[in-house]
Specification:
Blueprint lengths: L1 E6 L2 H11 L8 H14 L1 H13 L8 E5 L5 H9 L4 E5 L3 H10 L5 E6 L11 E7 L8 H11 E12 L5 H16 L1 H10 L1 H15 L8 H10 L2 E9 L4 E8 L2
Parallel strand pairs: 1-4, 2-3, 2-5, 3-4, 5-6
Antiparallel strand pairs: 6-8, 7-8
Helix pairs in contact: 2-5, 2-9, 7-8
This protein binds S-adenosylmethionine (SAM).
Length: about 260
């Protein structure tokens, strides 16, 4: 297995946080990592996103190079890796704990490079045929510039599978939805146990909401994200509302 880690120094990261001097605390992705996969396991809305991804893969040919931007604990790369065992995957994820979880899941994939950096600091060694960016763009500084960067890092005709949280994160609404679902599927006691185990999720979702309110994180309508994507030079092949209306899914092709 060829597995590499490109790492930013702690100092660079601290300096960049200090420069940003956020008025609100940011999401602690490191703390979130611990319970993040409870989300994938027990949240049907998240499961649907993975199914959406699986359903587009037959249309993408055989991608030689895949970038997973803000890949988190590796759920989308895992799907890509099992469908495309020959593809080189660059997994771009600045949070060490998120990345470690992904590394466990992807240990069987031969050609994986872990880039422990923000997308802004990613020095791409090549262009990609397929780029995945799920629920990460809204957390990045200057999303329009990031979309332009995505376009630049894709081969002409390359595909971007983009899912982005656009609407404010209503923690009470998610709690009611998940608790209702879990109680129905597993019973009240088990639902309570899972909620306790995943209490960090609600905490970090509150932090996401605060960052959205403070305009540190990007909120957008479906129209706003489609015009941002087109402005960056993509053709939108399909677009739909997903994640219970909170997010937008766009399949886009990089123009020449
Ligand atoms: C909500 S998680 C999504 C993870 C994964 N894509 C998924 O859907 O399961 C957002 C991820 O974006 C990462 N992230 C935050 N800022 C980033 C940046 N500037 N560049 C790249 N990734 C970033 C976080 O560390 C976190 O793992």
């Amino acid at each position: 297995m060829t597995s590499h880690v490109h790492s930013e120094s702690n100092w660079t990261r601290l300096a960049s946080r200090w420069r940003q001097s956020d008025p609100e605390p940011r999401t602690d992705w490191n703390a979130y990592a611990k319970s993040y996969d409870l989300l994938s396991e027990y949240n049907p809305a998240y499961q649907e996103l993975l199914q959406e991804f699986e359903s587009v893969l037959p249309t993408v040919g055989k991608p030689g190079v895949i970038f997973d931007v803000g890949g988190g604990t590796g759920n989308f790369s895992q799907v890509a890796a099992s469908r495309f065992p020959e593809s080189a995957i660059y997994f771009i994820e600045p949070d060490e704990r998120m990345k470690s979880r992904a590394a466990e899941k992807l240990s069987g994939h031969d050609k994986i490079t872990f880039v422990e950096r923000t997308f802004e600091n990613f020095e791409a060694p090549t262009q990609a045929d397929l780029m995945i960016c799920v629920h990460a763009l809204y957390t990045m500084p200057e999303p329009q510039a990031r979309l332009q960067e995505m376009k630049r890092l894709l081969k002409p005709g390359g595909l971007l599978f983009l899912v982005d949280l656009g609407r404010p994160m209503d923690v009470a609404d998610w709690r009611a939805y998940l608790f209702g679902h879990l109680t129905k599927e597993l019973g009240f006691l088990k639902a309570m146990q899972i909620f306790w185990k995943g209490r960090e999720i609600a905490k970090q979702n509150k932090a996401i909401f605060k960052s959205q309110e403070a305009n540190v994180y990007w909120t957008h309508t479906a129209e706003e994200i489609s015009s941002a994507v087109e402005k960056a030079g993509f053709e939108i092949l399909s677009q739909k509302s997903v994640y219970r209306g909170y997010s937008d899914l766009l399949l886009c092709r990089a123009g020449k």
